[in-house]
Amino acid sequence: MSRSPEHPTSHPAPPDREAQSPGGEPSAAQAQAMLAQAAGAARTLPAPVPAVLICYGILCAVGTFGTLGMHLAPYMTTPPGGLSPTVTILILAFMWIGAAIIAGMVFRERWRRGLSTRWLVYMGVWAVLWVLGMTLGGTMLGMFIAPAFVVPFVIAVSTEAAKARDARQAQQAGAGR
C-alpha cells in the first residue's frame, strides 16, 4: 500500500501506476481496477432514504408540537389586534405540513419508493392522531396524544431499515454467486 508523504491516510495507488499512458489517462488494467474499486464502494453505501419517510418525520414532529401548542394555547394571551394563539399555532402547523409536501416534491425521484399499503396505514394513523391532537390538545389528553406521534414514526423507520437491510443482503447474496 503506497501512501503519499503529504497525505498519510490516502487511498492506495491503483495497480500499474507506473504503466500509465503518456497522456495521463489510465491504462486498461488501471481502468478495470478503478471500476472494480468503485463497484465495491457502491455496494457498501447505504440505500437512500425514501422521501416519504422524510415527509412522514416532518408530519409527526408537526403533530407532536402542534398538539403541545394547542395544550398551551389557552394559557397564552392574545395580543391586541392579533391572532389568537390557537389560530397562530394552526397557521404555523399548516406551514410545516406544506414544507413536508414540498420536501416530497423536491425528492420526487425517490417519492414512489415506499408508497404502498403500509404508508397509507401510517398516514391514516397520523391523520387520526392529528385530529385528536387538534381537538383534544387543550385537555390533559393532549399530553398523552403529543408523544404518540413518535410511535408510528419509529415503526416506519424500523420497517424501512429492515427492508433496506433485506435488499442489501439479497444483493450481496446475488453478487456472491
TrEMBL record:
Q: Compositional bias of type Basic and acidic residues: which residue ranges?
A: 1-19
Extract the coiled-coil ranges from the record: none
InterPro entries hit by this protein: MFS_trans_sf
Keywords per UniProt = Membrane, Transmembrane, Transmembrane helix
Annotated segments matching region Disordered: 1-28
Does the record's keyword annotation contain Transmembrane? yes
Q: Where are the transmembrane segments?
A: 53-75, 87-107, 119-138, 144-162
Keyword Transmembrane belongs to the record: yes
* UniProt xrefs under SUPFAM superfamilies: MFS general substrate transporter
Quote the protein name from its UniProt record.
Uncharacterized protein
